[in-house]
């Protein structure tokens, strides 16, 4: 597999500044990042099922990632890294924002979790390969999606598992995730740019170019009375996929 070209910078300075400005609010479940706290259990349910399926693990095990390494890219302040550590993994989190990394490190230390956090471009950090690589709600924020996905693939060890989530580029996502959600303050204004959303077909193509084979996508849907939930059939707002070396 060709190594990602580190001259292809994926971090957008305006995106880094936007999320850096929210760093201190990341762990406030009722603050501007409330939407992440609401969707995170749904993402983790998908991830746990994928981990158990990939490694034929015991679904009752408290630490399904014991003796495995995990990398979360675009980790923010650690909402995914901390559960991965509790699942037994040796965890590294990477984010464009040094402010996010600082908050993440302090929060992990306060909870007695040993997690390595680093700020910068993934392709230039030379971190090696990991059994599990995750990147949730990140690819829509990067400047060069092809270089970013290639860097994720380069970070995946043989036999490893990659898990991604991203909003779909549909009329429904424009109306609900961008216009309505930002208008009512469900997500901070300026968080989403609909034209940067990625369809399942586009993401599958990017992963295939990086030498990965994808599983069937699963939607993160919403409906009154049920809220956010996994849906194999409704990909109109947001979706998750797993990938492995082809």
Automatic annotation (TrEMBL):
Q: Biological process GO annotation list?
A: methylation
Keyword Transferase in record: yes
Q: Which UniProt keywords apply?
A: Methyltransferase, S-adenosyl-L-methionine, Transferase, Ubiquinone biosynthesis
Pathway annotation from the record = Cofactor biosynthesis; ubiquinone biosynthesis
Quote the EC number.
2.1.1.222, 2.1.1.64
Catalysed transformations (reactions): a 3-(all-trans-polyprenyl)benzene-1,2-diol + S-adenosyl-L-methionine = a 2-methoxy-6-(all-trans-polyprenyl)phenol + S-adenosyl-L-homocysteine + H(+); a 3-demethylubiquinol + S-adenosyl-L-methionine = a ubiquinol + S-adenosyl-L-homocysteine + H(+)
- Which domain of life, per UniProt? Bacteria
- Tell me which Gene3D superfamilies the record gives: Vaccinia Virus protein VP39
Stored InterPro entries? SAM-dependent_MTases_sf (IPR029063), UbiG_MeTrfase (IPR010233)
Alphabetized GO MF terms: 2-polyprenyl-6-hydroxyphenol methylase activity; 3-demethylubiquinol 3-O-methyltransferase activity
Positions that bind S-adenosyl-L-methionine:
43, 74, 95, 136
Pfam families the record matches: Methyltransf_23
Q: Which family does it belong to?
A: Belongs to the methyltransferase superfamily. UbiG/COQ3 family.
| Role summary | O-methyltransferase that catalyzes the 2 O-methylation steps in the ubiquinone biosynthetic pathway.
Q: What is this protein called?
A: Ubiquinone biosynthesis O-methyltransferase
* Species this protein is from: Altererythrobacter litoralis
């Amino acid at each position: 597999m060709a190594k990602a070209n580190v001259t292809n910078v994926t971090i957008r300075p305006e995106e880094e500044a936007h999320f850096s400005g929210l760093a201190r609010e990341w762990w406030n479940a009722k603050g501007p990042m409330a939407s992440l706290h609401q969707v995170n259990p749904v993402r983790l349910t998908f991830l746990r099922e994928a981990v158990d399926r990939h490694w034929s693990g015991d679904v009752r095990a408290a630490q399904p990632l014991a003796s495995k390494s995990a990398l979360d890219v675009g980790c923010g302040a650690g909402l995914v890294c901390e559960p991965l550590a509790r699942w037994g993994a040796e965890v590294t989190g990477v984010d464009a924002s040094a402010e996010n990394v600082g908050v993440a490190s302090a929060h992990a230390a306060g909870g007695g979790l040993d997690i390595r956090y680093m700020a910068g471009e993934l392709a230039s950090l030379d971190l090696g390969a990991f059994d599990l690589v995750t990147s949730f709600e990140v690819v829509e924020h990067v400047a060069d999606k092809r270089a970013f996905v290639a860097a994720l693939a380069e970070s995946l060890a043989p036999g490893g598992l990659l898990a991604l989530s991203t909003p779909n580029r549909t009329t429904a996502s424009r109306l609900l995730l961008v216009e309505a959600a930002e208008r009512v303050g469900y997500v901070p204004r300026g968080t989403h740019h609909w034209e940067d959303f990625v369809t399942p077909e586009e993401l599958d193509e990017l992963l295939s170019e990086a030498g990965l084979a994808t599983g069937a996508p699963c939607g993160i849907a919403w409906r009154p009375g049920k809220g956010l939930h996994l849906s194999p059939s409704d990909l109109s707002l947001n979706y998750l996929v797993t990938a492995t070396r082809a």
